[in-house]
Design goal:
With 464 residues, this protein is an alpha/beta fold. The protein folds into three domains: 134 residues, Rossmann fold (3-Layer(aba) Sandwich); 239 residues, tm_1862 like domain (pyruvate-formate lyase- activating enzyme, Alpha-Beta Horseshoe); 58 residues, Nucleic acid-binding proteins (OB fold (Dihydrolipoamide Acetyltransferase, E2P), Beta Barrel). The protein has 13 helices and 21 strands.
Length: 464
């Protein structure tokens, strides 16, 4: 009765939260399994960024509840953003759910499961479902443990070493004070809260000692890290100070971060790309809209002109920079002219990757009450137009890489198990033949073929 399966929906922050929960549960003697068919306990870590994401998780939970009818001892928990957003309302639809745990209470999951299991093993009556979505000071400091897969039994029954962990997410900040009109995150994640810098650096050092080569710093608004807790030193923000300290760690070869806000790209962060070689030349820079009027309606505190200045400054600081972005099409009241402004800026910025969303009403956000909603067919057309630009951009960028030699961090076998996969510093996925001894190494790869999303190549090494 201690086998746990965790299914994660949504963003990298949710992935990191699930990883920490898995590590905490293992510390209590639970087994983390990779198949939901093998579990006694299922935890759904949910997303609320769009209503469709919540409906998907609710649909899954409704399906899994049927399993409880066959096995009353089976435990089902709903964690994370949807739990925080809906709370006890979930039980009105799914009364058989055992746990509803919000975003500041992940660290309480092992204790709640212990109590439920102890009651059932003692034959005590099953009590009411647990709902805990309260705020908890210091909760941002509890997402610090990392789950390392256990050795698996080999063909002869002996334990085999798990694949080494090459990259890791490190949560540095939670919550958001930006109050964008379309976004539910301030409600689901709370106000901005940063972790102590020394603790983050110690976590990164411990990961490096385990063989991790690449660190991705995570936060709802990661560039706001420490702005109320640390002072700027010689014009260097706390976030850049943290990057500098992680950069100094032996063993760490690459540093990434997500998700930032354009407001956070001051001169010190732009300059960091020129002077810190481990900081990867890849920036996720959310645009949302290329119309100044729509940006203002969204409560995004920058203009299209300022956004383009940031892009140009980053490219000047680090030639060859790769960019990804977020864009919302069909925000209430978006005219055809305003969409064309977005399209023009989207083309001018020459993105390598983008997440393009068709606006949907999100209950509980300021934009939910706005009139002048855009028809679905118009949203679809605008979405398709940007996707076509993105496809052309990606094909053109990949074509320029043919014949070049890129430095690749080897991550491990690809999905087929026949070849190996890794990424360029610009976050391009590569497939190639290699040896297991190269996992975790930076190697030169000559690019020989490219698709829209993947590069293929040959290692430039002797006897490989």
């Amino acid at each position: 009765m201690n086998r746990v399966y965790i299914k994660t929906y949504g963003c990298q922050m949710n992935e990191r939260d699930s990883d920490a929960v898995a590590a905490m549960l293992r510390g209590r003697g639970y087994r983390i399994v990779q198949s939901e068919d093998d579990c006694d306990i299922m935890l759904l870590n949910t997303c609320s960024v769009r209503d469709a994401a919540e409906q998907k998780a609710l649909g899954k939970a409704g399906y899994v509840v049927q399993r409880k009818k066959r096995n009353p001892d089976f435990i089902l928990g709903i964690l994370g953003c949807m739990a925080q957003n809906r709370g006890a309302e979930i039980l009105e639809r799914l009364p058989d759910v055992d746990l509803v745990i919000g975003t500041q209470k992940f660290h309480q999951v092992p204790g709640y499961l212990d109590n439920i299991r102890a009651a059932r093993e003692a034959g005590l009556p099953v009590g009411a479902s647990v709902v805990d979505i309260a705020e908890e000071p210091g909760s941002q400091n509890t997402i610090k443990d990392h789950y390392l897969p256990e050795p698996a039994p080999g063909p002869d029954g002996s334990a085999t070493e798990p694949a080494p962990q090459i990259s890791a997410f490190v949560s540095i900040q939670q919550g958001c004070n930006m109050d964008c009109a379309f976004c539910i995150v301030p409600k689901t994640r709370g106000d901005e809260r940063s972790r102590p810098m020394d603790e983050i650096v110690a976590e990164c050092a411990a990961l490096a000692a385990r063989g991790v080569r690449e660190i991705t710093l995570l936060g709802q608004i990661v560039t706001s890290y420490g702005r109320r807790d640390y002072v700027h030193t010689d014009g260097i923000s706390p976030f850049v100070q943290l990057i500098e300290r992680v950069h100094a760690l032996e063993g760490i070869a690459r540093i990434r971060f997500t998700s930032p806000h354009p407001r956070g790209f001051k001169d010190d962060l732009v300059a960091a790309y020129a002077r810190l070689p481990k900081l990867c030349p890849y920036v996720h820079l959310p645009l949302q809209s290329g119309s100044n009027r729509i940006l203002k309606a969204m409560n995004r505190p920058y203009t299209r002109e300022r956004y383009k200045e940031i892009v140009d400054a980053l490219r000047a600081s680090r030639p060859g920079m790769y960019f990804s972005t977020d864009v919302i099409v069909g925000f209430p009241g978006e005219s055809e002219e305003e969409f064309q402004q977005t399209r023009e800026l989207f083309e001018a910025c020459d993105y390598d990757m983008a997440y393009i969303f068709k606006y949907s009403i999100r209950t509980g956000t300021p934009a939910a009450g706005l009139g002048d909603q855009i028809a679905d067919e118009i949203k679809e057309r605008r979405n398709h137009a940007l996707l076509e630009i993105l496809k052309r951009n990606s094909e053109r960028r990949n074509a320029t890489l043919l014949g070049t030699v890129e430095e690749i961090l080897v991550e491990g076998p690809d999905k087929t198990g026949q070849r190996y996969t890794g990424r360029t510093a610009g976050n391009r996925v590569c497939i190639f033949d290699a040896s297991p001894r190269l996992v975790g190494q930076l190697v030169p790869l000559r690019i020989t073929r490219a698709s829209v999303s993947t590069l293929y190549g040959e290692l430039v090494l002797a006897e490989v």
